[in-house]
């Protein structure tokens, strides 16, 4: 009793103790499982739940914030892996596209050689272009066939589309090809192309001596006035001149006009071959005539 009176004498301690008893009582009432609680119990239960909700929301937000901070390193590593995967994917797609393009070209090359077997008895040696000259006034490419492969100067070089040039210089393992886009009647390096019209019984004949870079056309000169050459005709090598063998496709006639002094005609020829970004070419080997071996 003495202790109780002493506690009552300390008002602050008494109030704190009383509040604690009330709080414990309220919590007990909150968790009572009764089927029909009284309205004071319902009121106290709802009030306590509301107060708990006020504290739960900010506590939950703070907990989620620190949980998200803990995941930053994990997200960083995951993002890094995804970036690497995307880079590998882009590289693989580019490689796949390159392989598909190469496969398409090789199929076209194979079909070309098969067609030539039924057309002439030339041997077409496929070669890969390993370099080209950046100088527009020195239109040459380098291929991976040379003396060791039996390649010789002045052999004709073609693509599946048409004539592109001739072998100009040979080393043991490589060869330099002079493109027909370098044809220039003022140069000492060019080799004029003796040409005719494919599929006509007439004696169409002319000489391709010049290439105009401004319009991308070859100029065929020394055509007779009586020659029936006309727009759309397919021009091929005639075999004369000892450089380019007979029957190699060059291009189509775009137009023809009266030549110099009005004695001959000149025709503009659009080449079949695409000289940009050459990948593979064929070196044409002509079998020796009887008695020349």
Automatic annotation (TrEMBL):
<keyword id="KW-0133">Cell shape</keyword>
<dbReference type="InterPro" id="IPR042177">
    <property type="entry name" value="Cell/Rod_1"/>
</dbReference>
<keyword id="KW-1133">Transmembrane helix</keyword>
<keyword id="KW-0175">Coiled coil</keyword>
<dbReference type="InterPro" id="IPR055342">
    <property type="entry name" value="MreC_beta-barrel_core"/>
</dbReference>
<dbReference type="InterPro" id="IPR042175">
    <property type="entry name" value="Cell/Rod_MreC_2"/>
</dbReference>
<comment type="similarity">
    <text>Belongs to the MreC family.</text>
</comment>
<protein>
    <recommendedName>
        <fullName>Cell shape-determining protein MreC</fullName>
    </recommendedName>
</protein>
<keyword id="KW-0812">Transmembrane</keyword>
<comment type="function">
    <text>Involved in formation and maintenance of cell shape.</text>
</comment>
<feature type="transmembrane region" description="Helical">
    <location>
        <begin position="12"/>
        <end position="32"/>
    </location>
</feature>
<feature type="coiled-coil region">
    <location>
        <begin position="72"/>
        <end position="116"/>
    </location>
</feature>
<keyword id="KW-0472">Membrane</keyword>
<dbReference type="InterPro" id="IPR007221">
    <property type="entry name" value="MreC"/>
</dbReference>
<feature type="domain" description="Rod shape-determining protein MreC beta-barrel core">
    <location>
        <begin position="129"/>
        <end position="285"/>
    </location>
</feature>
<dbReference type="Pfam" id="PF04085">
    <property type="entry name" value="MreC"/>
</dbReference>
């Amino acid at each position: 009793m003495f202790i109780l009176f002493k506690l009552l004498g300390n008002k602050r301690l008494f109030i704190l103790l009383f509040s604690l008893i009330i709080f414990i009582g309220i919590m007990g009432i909150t968790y009572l499982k009764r089927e029909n609680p009284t309205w004071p119990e319902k009121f106290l239960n709802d009030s306590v739940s509301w107060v708990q909700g006020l504290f739960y929301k900010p506590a939950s937000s703070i907990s989620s914030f620190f949980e998200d901070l803990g995941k930053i390193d994990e997200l960083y590593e995951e993002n890094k892996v995804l970036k690497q995967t995307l880079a590998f994917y882009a590289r693989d797609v580019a490689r796949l596209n390159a392989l598909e393009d190469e496969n398409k070209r090789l199929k076209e090359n194979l079909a070309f050689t098969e067609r030539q077997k039924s057309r002439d008895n030339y041997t077409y040696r496929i070669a890969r272009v390993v370099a080209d000259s950046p100088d527009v006034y020195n239109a040459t490419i380098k291929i991976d066939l040379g003396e060791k492969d039996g390649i010789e100067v002045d052999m004709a070089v073609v693509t599946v589309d048409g004539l592109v040039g001739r072998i100009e210089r040979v080393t043991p393992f490589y060869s330099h090809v002079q493109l027909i886009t370098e044809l220039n009647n003022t140069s000492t390096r060019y080799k004029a192309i003796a040409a005719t019209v494919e599929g006509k019984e007439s004696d169409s004949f002319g000489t391709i001596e010049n290439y105009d870079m401004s319009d991308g056309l070859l100029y065929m000169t020394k055509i007779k006035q009586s020659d029936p050459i006309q727009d759309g005709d397919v021009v091929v090598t005639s075999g004369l001149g000892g450089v380019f063998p007979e029957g190699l496709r060059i291009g189509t006639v775009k137009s023809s006009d009266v030549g110099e002094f009005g004695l001959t005609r000149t025709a503009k020829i659009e080449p079949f071959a695409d000289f940009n970004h050459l990948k593979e070419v064929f070196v044409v080997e002509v079998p020796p005539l009887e008695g020349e071996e």
